[in-house]
Design a protein that fits this description.
This protein has four domains: 105 residues, Helix Hairpins (Orthogonal Bundle), CATH 1.10.287.110; 83 residues, Sandwich (HSP40/DNAj peptide-binding domain), CATH 2.60.260.20; 79 residues, Urease metallochaperone UreE, N-terminal domain (HSP40/DNAj peptide-binding domain, Sandwich), CATH 2.60.260; 37 residues, no CATH class. The chain is an alpha+beta fold and 381 residues long. The protein is built from nine helices and 15 strands. The strands form six sheets. Strands 10-11-15-14 form a four-stranded mixed β-sheet. A three-stranded mixed β-sheet has the order 1-9-8.
Length: 381
């Protein structure tokens, strides 16, 4: 019967990962066959130490060991190197020199993109919402419904039917990967690939959950209310961490990315960042003589009155500080830029046309010349 792995390393069952690593380094230096040539049992003890460390150094394998014992957490767990010791080349190098010869974590410490076997994160999910121009400027709350993979309530994410439980994969013995040993000029190197039988999860399910077909997750429509910040632009994306698909058999959830589509601006309005633009149409007479013209702000909260100075030309821009939209990163509001556009009168009645002809005469303009009225209109544009 195999000795308890914690006893092999001489640490308590609640030992931290650092305590386990320190115990392994100490024993590896003491028992390595090249360093200990007098003790006939050193080689076997060294194999035992490597076997224990291979399991306890990995949080997922350690969890399997605590739950199922040696058989459930990779009873063998190491590849035979044939040179008087077993275990990963990176682990041995780390024990003597403090790190892997290839950089990064020791061999076998992680799999599936940095996550313990079977707990890779779920996929990211995309969605889209539409906002009015006003809501995009000032910010708003928007509802979105997405179909995402959520934890199966029937099996609580295990993938196994009620009354059963996942079992350690017999092919990889719970590792989630199978290893091969190659001889190179550097010595014997172990390589790993996902286990073909359990697809890298380290477990097999003999009686799959009927609700999720052994996946540990099911598709469900979820409705969310998003708080859209002010000043968002068309095509921007909002990221909601952990709101995507949950991982296979209980892995962490991916993210939700919501693309924002902003509707066209109301007539006369535009924006540039937090600054608002408004085109104010002014009658020709007001532009020539002066006066006041007003309009409501974009959100309707107040009324803006613009003083039109006599002889104001079309295209004149007036600036109102702090009357624009909220700045994206705070710090008050942008400005409101009002472009004055002088309107030329059209469809004149006889009296109005007579008055304009009189004005033209007073200004020394020949109103009988074809196209003179268009030139008068152009003078006020």
């Amino acid at each position: 019967m195999s000795r308890d792995f914690y006893d092999v390393l001489g640490v308590p069952s609640n030992a931290s990962q650092d305590e386990i690593k320190r115990a392994y380094r100490r024993l590896a230096r003491e028992l390595h066959p090249d360093a200990n040539t007098t003790d006939p049992d050193a080689e076997e003890r060294f194999k035992e130490v490597n076997r224990a460390y291979e399991i306890l150094k990995d949080p997922e394998k350690r969890r399997h060991y605590d739950m199922f014992g040696p058989e459930g957490a990779d009873g063998g767990g190491t590849a035979d190197f044939g040179a008087g010791f077993s275990g990963g080349f990176g682990d041995i190098f780390e024990a003597f020199f403090g790190g892997s010869p290839f950089g990064g974590a020791p061999f076998g410490a992680r799999s599936r993109g940095g996550y313990p076997s079977g707990t890779a994160p779920g996929e990211d999910v995309g969605a889209e919402i539409g906002l009015s121009f006003v809501d995009a400027v000032f910010g708003a709350e928007a509802a979105v419904t997405v179909n995402v993979q959520v934890l199966c309530e029937a099996c609580h994410g295990s993938g196994a039917s009620e009354g059963t439980h996942p079992e350690s994969c017999g092919t990889c013995r719970g590792r989630g990967e199978v290893q091969e040993v190659r001889r190179t000029v550097l010595g014997q190197i172990v390589t790993a690939r996902p286990c073909p039988d359990c697809k890298g999860t380290g477990i097999t399910i003999t009686s799959p959950c009927e609700d999720c077909a052994g996946q540990g997750r099911v598709v469900q429509a979820q409705s969310l209310t998003l708080k859209v910040p002010p000043g968002i632009e068309d095509g921007s994306q909002l990221r909601l961490p952990g709101r995507g698909d949950i991982g296979y058999r209980g892995g962490p959830a991916g993210d939700l990315y919501v693309r924002v589509r902003v509707a066209a601006a109301p007539e006369g309005w535009g924006r540039q960042g937090s600054d608002l633009l408004y085109v104010l149409h002014v009658p020709m007479t007001t532009a020539a003589l002066g006066g006041q013209v007003g309009f409501p702000t974009l959100d309707g909260s107040e009324y803006v009155t613009v003083d039109i100075m006599p002889n104001t030309a079309s295209g004149t821009v007036r600036r109102f500080r702090g009357k624009g939209g909220p700045r994206v990163r705070g710090g008050g509001n942008g400005d409101l830029h009002v472009e004055i556009r002088v309107d030329t009168p059209s469809e004149l009645d006889e009296e109005q046309e007579a008055l304009l002809r009189r004005l033209a005469e007073l200004r020394g303009e020949n109103v009988d010349t074809p196209g003179v009225m268009s030139r008068i209109r152009n003078a006020f544009r």
